[in-house]
Design a protein that fits this description.
With about 120 residues, the protein is an all-alpha fold. It has five helices and no strands. It is globular. The mean pLDDT is about 90.
Length: about 120
């Protein structure tokens, strides 16, 4: 089986929660790697920050849509976090600050996504 066929099968078998977890894991790993090299590889740093910012922006857009079924308070918290991620990312890109706060937030989200709701 080709890699593309395997990836397609994996995506169709994943539930949305698993897909979100996988995406957060990929983005967070990029942040971890960029944090290690810092401004020594500015392209890697900016790319990781941009990817993370786009992920959070997409979450905020989804949470602001009328069809979103998450509780209002949770939606507001995600939108608030998205705004913080955007501001912090801009500051980190310009100052070279550690990306640990972004990494910690993403890991917290991943921990929540990995928990299974009670049936």
């Amino acid at each position: 089986m080709s890699l593309q066929a395997y990836q397609k099968a994996q995506r169709s078998a994943e539930n949305p929660r698993d897909t979100e977890y996988r995406l957060f894991a990929q983005v967070t790993q990029a942040l971890i790697e960029a944090n290690k090299v810092g401004r020594a590889n500015i392209t890697q740093l900016v790319d990781a920050l941009d990817w993370n910012r786009r992920l959070w922006s997409a979450l905020a857009v989804d949470c602001s849509s009328k069809g979103n079924q998450l509780p209002d308070a949770l939606r507001a918290q995600i939108i608030s976090l998205s705004l913080w991620v955007s501001r912090f990312s801009s500051d980190a890109a310009s100052t070279g600050a550690s990306l640990e706060p972004l990494i910690d937030v993403n890991k917290s989200i991943m921990a929540g996504l990995s928990q299974r709701p009670a049936t």
